[in-house]
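Re: that backbone. Tokens:
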């Protein structure tokens, strides 16, 4: 896979997963505290931090994670 394509793919996966995960966080915090402002604030902080961490996690697996990969012949 081309390096530029894989980077774009990792960014796309990061963003789409964050939408799902952020909605889950928002709903959980809202149900527990009943406060839209608190739920929104926590969702935003959590989203930024986890998006950055997920991207670097994906890049590390791409670069060093040979588990389940086969060499091209």
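Recovered sequence:
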């Amino acid at each position: 896979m081309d390096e530029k394509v894989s980077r774009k793919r990792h960014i796309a996966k990061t963003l789409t997963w964050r939408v799902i995960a952020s909605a889950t966080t928002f709903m959980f915090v809202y149900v527990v505290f009943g406060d839209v402002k608190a739920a929104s604030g926590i969702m935003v902080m959590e989203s930024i931090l986890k998006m950055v961490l997920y991207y670097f996690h994906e890049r590390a697996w791409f670069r060093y994670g040979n588990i389940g990969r086969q060499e091209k012949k």
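Helices lie at 3-33, 36-64. The mean pLDDT is 86.
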